Amino acid sequence: MQRTITFLILAALIAGVGAGAALQAFGNETLIGAAGVAEAVGALWLKALKATVIPLVAALLITGVASVADAASAGRLAGRAIGVFGVMLAVSAAYAVAAILGLLALFPVGAAEADALLAGVGATRTEAAAFDIGSWLQQLVPSNPIRAAADDQILAFTVFAIAFGFAATRLPSEQRQSITSFFKAVAEAMILIVRWVLVLAPVGVFGLSIGVGLRSGLGAAGVLLHYIVLVSAVIAGVTVIAVLFAVIWGRRSPAAFLSAAAPVQAMAFSTQSSIACLPAMVEQARDAMGLPERVVDLVLPLSVAVFRMTSAAGNLGVAFFIAAVHGIEPTGFQIASAVLVAVPISIGSVGLPGQVSFVASVGPICLALGVPLELLGILIAVEVVPDIFRTVGNVTADLAAAVIVNRREATADAAPEPQ
Predict the structure, then answer these.
(1) Which of 68, 82, 169, 276 is deepest in the core (most CB within 10 A)?
(2) What residues have CB less than 8 Å from 109, skipping those under 6 apart?
(3) CATH at 53
(4) Distance CA 58, CA 208 (A)
(5) Considering the entire predicted model, what is its pTM?
(6) 382 lies in which domain range?
(7) Angle CA(261)–CA(262)–CA(264) in degrees, nearest 5?
(8) Contact 281, 399 (CB under 8 A)
(9) pLDDT tens digits, 57-115
(10) For position 413, what pLDDT does the model report?
(11) If you write DSSP's letter for every residue of 320-336 in order, what string do you get?
(12) 87 vs 365: CA distance, rounded Å
């Protein structure tokens, strides 16, 4: 079902841009008026999608913090795994910022093509807000979290939600379970709404893309191809970094690690699901890599549950590309805000379907950068290609993390006891 909707969305994008370009060429006023109705439907669908972002983010952050805290307290091995995940996520996010900004500097988005694409979704270039250290620090703590959410002050809202999640983990067991159960239910309800909205995605994307084709012709296809190549390249780089982690920190031979990971990567390429790859990961980690069962049985399921190394990197790549289309050059404070939002949200959104995760993860980063969300409705249609690279990178990072944790365990066991 998920794959069918994905290809229907992609087909709707192609059909909408093609139909809009044809209307532009023929100039039939009656048909152009009908296209305006389709655009209105697309705009309505996009508003429904955007309405789910803030409540879904709040629920995912709170439950995500609780799940990580519970895992870290489960024992020394789990705590080490969480520490490894944290280091790998931080490096991945830092790399992504440098990579996407570097690629955009080498291969910038054409101003004319960007303006045409924005006009197609009823948006215009956005002026970057002036930032200074004082105003940025004040954004870290909201005086009113509800108002922060309403005003799209996503960094302040993220800080509050994370603090709330950590506070919940310190409560007595019954109270903690009540809070986490409530927010899990909220998250599930919001995910269900997003699923309903995404069922209508082919209609919504067609409505949005017909406006793109009408105003920009087939020139929009070049911007979308530019997006696919740049974001996929950034995510592919995360896979390389995961291998380097296994080689340098895990002390594994590159050839041996890649040989053992290859069957899992092939499955990830075809399924685009880390969960579906878990049995193959367990088998390869035990048989091909020779990792002990106690490490494999804990680290790999835990990594699938709370760790996606490519998530923050890929989402940052998407958000910075959208900023480039709007002509925004992020300041250092905006970049820091984007990273501070991207990393915890990547943890909270683990396990969500790709399209749901795309909206829940990229939307808050865009808000942190001061970038409108209108382009998400178009970019979600071509996310199928970067999503392949995301899954391949994630399973590679999961195996690398298991190798590293095993190495750390062996080093700790070999260390002499303090006198």
Answers:
(1) 68
(2) 223, 226, 321, 324, 325
(3) 1.10.3860
(4) 28
(5) 0.83
(6) 2-412
(7) 70
(8) yes
(9) 888 888 877 777 766 665 678 788 888 999 999 999 999 999 999 999 999 988 877 87
(10) 54
(11) HHHHHHTT----HHHHH
(12) 20
Asked whether the beta carbons of 212 and 220 are under 8 A apart, the reply is yes
| 245 Cβ contact list (under 8 Å, min separation 6) | 88, 91, 397, 400, 401, 404
Is residue 161 assigned to a domain?
yes
Q: Is residue 299 part of a domain?
A: yes
Residue 418 lies in a domain: no
Please report, to the nearest 10 degrees, the dihedral formed by the alpha carbons of residues 368, 237, 288, 292 taken in order: -40
How far CA 251 is from CA of 167, 233, 406, in Å, comes to 38, 26, 10
Tokens for 273?
Answer: 């699901």
Alpha-carbon radius of gyration of the chain: 22
Residue with tokens 């995961």: 242
Number of domains in the chain: 1
**Cα dist. 22→167, 194, 326, 349, 378 in Å?**
57, 32, 26, 39, 19
Angstrom distances, CA of residue 63 to CA of 53, 56, 57, 71:
16, 11, 10, 12
Residue listed under structure tokens 């983010």: 57
Q: Answer whether residue 32 is part of any domain.
A: yes
* Residue, of 62 and 402, whose pLDDT is higher: 402
Cβ contact 52:194 at 8 Å: yes
Name the more confident of 411 and 98: 98
Burial class (CB in 10 A: 0-12, 13-18, 19+), 1: exposed
Which residue, among 367, 306, 317, has the nearest Cα to 129 in the 3D structure?
A: 367
